Amino acid sequence: VQAAVICSKQLSVHLRLRSGGHDFEGVSYAATVDDHPFMVLDFQRFRSVSVNIEDETVWVEAGATVGELYYKIAEKSNVHSFPGGVATSLGLGGYISGGGYGSMLRKYGLAVDNVIDARLVDSEGRVLDRKAMGE
């Protein structure tokens, strides 16, 4: 991911991200109005889900789906869940970065409201997390 960000910036190629493919506007797959060249970074194989019931946290990769997260939580607990929606094929990267509207919104807020840390690559190619950003 870091190499793709740095390389696309150096070559002036737009970078589009695909987490689960539920992009109804087509911005992940179609050229913009100016037909600027772009490449798609597909997170389909970045699907690790690690559940820690003891401290009630999970780490997920951007390509994991809502359904995969539900399944991994259910393997470890019958009382824990995640404020996701009913579309289990949604990629978590896009779902959470879009806010994460779901059926448990009224009780638990948006999915993004429940994020306590994340590892991401910024537009300069730096890998950041909560600690690296000063918290």
From TrEMBL:
Gene3D superfamilies assigned to the protein according to its UniProt record, in alphabetical order: 3.30.465.10, Uridine Diphospho-n-acetylenolpyruvylglucosamine Reductase, domain 2 (3.30.43.10)
Name of the protein described by the UniProt record: FAD-binding PCMH-type domain-containing protein
MF annotations from Gene Ontology: FAD binding
Pfam family for this entry, one: FAD_binding_4
Sequence ranges assigned to domain FAD-binding PCMH-type in this UniProt record: 1-135
Cofactor(s) named in the record: FAD
SUPFAM superfamilies: FAD-binding/transporter-associated domain-like (SSF56176)
Regions that span the bilayer: none
InterPro entries: FAD-bd_PCMH (IPR016166), FAD-bd_PCMH-like_sf (IPR036318), FAD-bd_PCMH_sub1 (IPR016167), FAD-bd_PCMH_sub2 (IPR016169), Oxid_FAD_bind_N (IPR006094)
Entry-linked PANTHER family: OS08G0158400 PROTEIN
Lineage, opening ranks: Eukaryota, Viridiplantae, Streptophyta, Embryophyta, Tracheophyta
